[in-house]
Design brief:
α8 (about 235-240) packs across α11 (about 310-325), α8 (about 235-240) packs parallel to α12 (about 335-345) and α9 packs antiparallel against α13 (about 375-390). The strands form 3 sheets. Strands 6-7-8-3-9-10 form a 6-stranded mixed beta sheet, sandwiched between helices. The chain has a 4-stranded antiparallel beta sheet with strand order 2-1-4-5. Strands 12-13-11-14 form a 4-stranded antiparallel beta sheet, covered by helices on one side. The chain has 2 domains: about 5-240, P-loop containing nucleotide triphosphate hydrolases (Rossmann fold), CATH 3.40.50.300; about 245-310 and about 350-390, Alpha-Beta Plaits (2-Layer Sandwich). It is about 35% helix and about 25% strand. The longest helix is centred in the middle third of the chain and has 17 residues, at about 180-200. The protein has about 400 residues and is of the alpha/beta class.
């Protein structure tokens, strides 16, 4: 058998018995994970995303050998996670935010010493490693304090140190920065990135902080109700789902013509206390240039322009909605980002209507490229009318 340096998950399923009507009711099986295939190679941070109840934590606990799967296989460097659980545990470690993973009646130093011995870390290395990790997570001054006196954030920092004590080949991170101060969370992200890039550690990350996922993950799996929905890089997932950019254009002297342009583009308008307006447009295409050009040609003065790129959160929500609607389930196979991109326009009407060549306007610029005549029939008409008004000398 060829040994691979990766965690390979094939057909993973997990069922839990539940009682529907109290303690005396009939027992039924609830499926938390339903036929997942995953690959977590060495040297990469892989994301596992989904809404609450998607099966992320259950999956990670199976990979960590804390739960036995109901069906399917998990192999770590070719070792079966059930039959060879002891050997697998020497290669992995788990950091879970919000869970108590250390002993409160021991000091921070004693915790790391204890867990290091469980992993058979040589005592000379363990002594040095303990000091390094306590310094890394900012607990050197509290190393000999009982953990029961730690704050929640301090306890979580110690759990991070515990998860790194054996220099794992594979690190499983389940909401690792939950409850952490921003500087410690930033340092943890740096450590995780370095572990993957320089030490060749394979990392699986679940997190509700999607900026964290975009920063760290080269590849992401999206699941819903324990089923595979999509996979790809964060950028591919956003492109595949037609996630919307947001353009906010501040107009200092709005007129009926500028309002007509905003309405034609399908944008919303918000009146400011000083009489100006903020026009907000969400669209998968690059619409900053066309919108700005049309407003400018309608005689509006541009006071500011903000562009927010499409978010991974929008992509995850879109995929989850498709999953609930049955558009991406077991019968639909396991689409990657390329497959999803082909269907993005169907899933979201108008997702493919972005215009090429749109320029980004600068506030106060003398000219803006008005190359957006094909935005939509209504918007094109508004632009044409605005240009005519501009030729005649401005606004009414």
């Amino acid at each position: 058998m060829t040994t691979t340096t990766a965690i390979e998950v094939r057909g993973l399923r997990k069922d839990f018995p539940v009682r529907e009507k109290g303690i005396l009711g009939p027992r039924t099986l609830k499926r938390a994970v339903d036929g997942l295939d995953l690959d977590i190679p060495r040297g990469r941070v892989t994301g596992l995303l989904g809404l609450n109840g998607a099966g992320k934590t259950t999956t990670i606990k199976i990979l960590a050998t804390l739960l036995r799967p109901s069906a399917g296989t998990v192999r770590v460097d070719g070792l079966d996670a059930v039959a060879d659980a002891r050997a697998v545990r020497r290669r992995i470690n788990l950091i879970a935010g919000g869970e108590r993973m250390v002993y409160t009646r021991m000091t921070g130093r004693e915790n790391l010493w204890y867990f290091g011995q469980l992993y058979d870390v040589p005592k000379a290395d363990l002594r040095r490693r303990t000091g390094e990790l306590l310094d890394l997570v900012g607990l050197s001054d509290a190393a000999d304090t009982m953990v029961e006196r730690y704050s929640r954030g301090m306890t979580q920092r110690l759990a991070i140190a515990r998860g790194l004590i054996n220099r794992p080949d594979y690190l499983l991170l389940d909401e690792p920065t939950l409850g952490l101060d921003a500087p410690i969370a930033r340092d943890l992200r740096r450590v995780v990135a370095d572990l993957a890039a320089h030490d060749g550690t394979g990392v699986l990350l679940t997190s509700h902080y999607l900026a964290e996922v975009e920063e760290l993950c080269g590849h992401v799996y999206v699941i819903s109700a324990g089923r595979h929905l999509a996979q790809g890089s964060p950028a591919e997932l956003k492109a595949a789902t037609g996630s919307h950019r947001t353009v906010r254009l501040t107009v200092t002297d709005p007129t009926e013509r500028t309002r007509a342009v905003a309405d034609a583009f399908g944008a919303t308008r918000e009146t400011l206390p000083d009489g100006g307006e903020v026009i907000t447009l969400r669209h998968p295409g690059d619409m900053a240039g066309p919108l700005t050009a049309a407003v400018f040609e309608a005689g509006g003065s541009i006071g500011g322009l903000e562009i927010a790129e499409a978010s991974l959160e929008d992509a995850i929500l879109t995929l989850a909605e498709r999953g609930e609607a049955g558009l991406a389930g077991p019968g639909a196979g396991r689409p990657d980002a390329t497959t999803l991109r082909a269907g993005a326009a169907t899933a979201r009407p108008g997702a493919a209507s972005g215009l090429p060549g749109a320029a980004t306007a600068r506030p106060g610029a003398a000219t803006v490229r008005p190359d957006a005549a094909a935005v939509s029939p209504d918007a094109g008409a508004a632009l044409s009318e605005a240009a005519t008004a501009g030729t005649k000398g401005g606004t009414p």
